[in-house]
Amino acid sequence: MKNYLNDYGISESEQLYIIGNGFDIHHKIKTEYCNFKDWLKKNAKKSSLIDLIDIFFNNDNKFWSKIEQSLGEYNEYSITDWCVPDNPTDYKYDHPGAWQASVEDSIPYIFGTAMDDFRNAFNEWVDSINIKGIKTDLLLPKTAKYFTFNYTDTLENAYGIPPENVLHIHGSRLNPYDKYVFGHGTLRDVNKPYMDETIELPYQNAYSEVIDTMNNWRKDPQKIIKNHDAFFDSLSNCKGVCVMGLSYNTVDMPYLEEVAQKVGPDCQWVLMYYNNEDYQRAYKFSKKHNLSKPKITRRWAD
Q1: In contact, 118 and 71? CB cutoff 8 Å
Q2: pTM of this prediction?
Q3: Contact yes or no for 71/214 (Cβ under 8 A)
Q4: Do 25 and 65 share a domain, yes or no?
Q5: What would the pLDDT profile of 31-65 be if each residue is shown by its tens digit?
Q6: How many Cβ atoms are within 10 Å of 116's Cβ, its own excluded?
Q7: Of 194, 218, 242, which residue sits at a domain end?
Q8: How many domains does the chain have?
Q9: Which of 39, 112, 161, 221 is the most buried (most CB within 10 A)?
Q10: β-sheet bridge partners, residue 15
């Protein structure tokens, strides 16, 4: 693939590349969510997570293709119904508050534990992804800046990009102290269940517990951006931006918008897309931010 930004006469040190998961997929690295599911299936100690997650997030069977989106579409009622004891009032308890405790405790003990196991499994899978032997067929300048959503070290170890030129906005396998940012974009009010007086208090508490658990899975782009403000401030001298392997989904937009604000209106953008939906979102982004004559092109096209 040729370097479009060089065609505009932009020096390599003034270029920024924004990299999404399509970049690794292009290199035949198994980083799709379906690969995560396959990894779980092959791991006897973790394969049971598949059934649990399918129960908790029954989002039209799309969970394993759109995990992060599906995590944000959870239903606290169905999750609680599955976790609590069947016909709890039929049980004989030793003290009056036992029924309430059994309903509320089932959320952290069952759902919370399963979600912790799911996160740990995801982290293990990321650490296991193999990038050895891939074909490096793209022209990526070593002196440019790189902003990547990927956890893998493809840029550094396959393309030889200096680590100091790469920002892994969601964490990197190269940094043992990084926590992988993985989750959804939905923030919900933990107090909402208490507004419905027709719901018994134990279930109000349980629904609130589910919401609180899933709020902890929310990505906070503004907080993440603030944590890396030095990098974003350094983009004021950038004259060209190339986006590759990104789907331009809503969850990505805060980062792209921050870049657009920092580089200014005269910066040259090259927006690569994979399918028509990506094209429409890329086009909408370019119009919203008045990008100056952006080039919107098929991904990896010459």
Answers
A1: no
A2: 0.90
A3: yes
A4: no
A5: 999 999 999 999 978 888 999 999 999 765 688 98
A6: 12
A7: 218
A8: 2
A9: 161
A10: 240
